[in-house]
Hints:
Distance between the termini: 53 Å
Mean pLDDT: 88
Low-confidence stretches: none
Number of domains: 1
Shape: extended
Number of helices: 1
Largest sheet: none
Number of strands: 0
Radius of gyration: 17 Å
Structural class: little secondary structure
Amino acid sequence: MAHDLVCWKCGASLAALTLPLRRLEQCPRCSAELHVCRMCLEYDTSRAQQCREPVAEEVREKDRANFCDFFKPRPGAYQAPDTSAAADSRAQLEQLFK
């Protein structure tokens, strides 16, 4: 079971799913595809092709299901969006129009 895995897109627990993830496996909450680069242990935005695996073929769409044989699901793949700038802007607008 995928006890500590969460969806890369919404952060929902994937504990009910069994490993290995099928290529077309989807998140039960948001229906995002899960066999994607953004969910992989080898995904690294600082690397060429955003992958640490040197012999993997390039996958252009990092958030779409792919056939990569090097895919390993990454615990903690979800990154909450940074909404601080939007909140600051909203607060400034509210202050301006009070």
